[in-house]
Amino acid sequence: TTPLYNIATGLYSLDKIIHESFGHKYDIILFDRALYDAYCWMEYWVEKNQLTPGDRFVWQSFFTSKQFTEKLDLVYFMVCDPKIALERELRVALSKKPRETTTQASIENKVKIWRQVHSFQSGFHSNIRLVNTTKMTEQEMVEYVANDILTTLEAKSKP
């Protein structure tokens, strides 16, 4: 019910990004939530009057600092029709009762935010992709991301 959770998940992702970018333990790391997710949630919390526009700017600037974002090879903004997203969310949930952030209206709002942020940020970062998963099966989603990752890594490895 506050931005603190999203700030914490952003900070957790940032810690992993920084530490793993200097190690050689993994070649690929996939994050469910990362820097741009925290960025998007700051928009949500301003709309909910839980964060001031000034604080939003500070957090968004922090999470998208070049020294952090340059460590990301690919970023996916996964969006979906809100009705289908809600069905997917509740399919294997402990409770079928939606929470504040998983109502159809809330999901519609978040899809709008994620699309707007993608539109803005992709103008600065060519590694950001918008993927509409509405008509994709889970297998198709996995194949799309896997193929895109491999294609990108292959292109990056060529002189």
Entry keywords:
159 residues, mainly alpha, two-stranded parallel ribbon, 2 strands, globular
Describe this structure in words.
The chain has 159 residues and is mainly α. The chain has helices spanning 4-21, 35-47, 53-63, 66-69, 82-91, 104-121, 138-157; strands at 75-79, 128-132. A two-stranded parallel sheet has the order 1-2. 18% of the residues are buried. The mean pLDDT is 91.
Low-confidence stretches: none
* Beta-strand residue fraction: 5-15%
C-alpha end-to-end distance: 48 Å
Order of helices and strands: HHHHEHHEH
Largest sheet: 2 strands, parallel
Question: For the residues shown, what is the average pLDDT?
Answer: 91
Contiguous helical run count: 7
Overall structural class, as computed from helix and strand content, comes to: mainly alpha
Helix content: 55-70%
Q: Secondary structure elements and their pairing?
A:
Layout: H1 4-21, H2 35-47, H3 53-63, H4 66-69, E1 75-79, H5 82-91, H6 104-121, E2 128-132, H7 138-157
Parallel strand pairs: 1-2
Helix pairs in contact: 1-2, 2-3, 2-6, 5-6
Quick structural summary:
The chain has 159 residues and is mainly alpha-helical. The chain contains seven helices and two strands, in the order H-H-H-H-E-H-H-E-H.
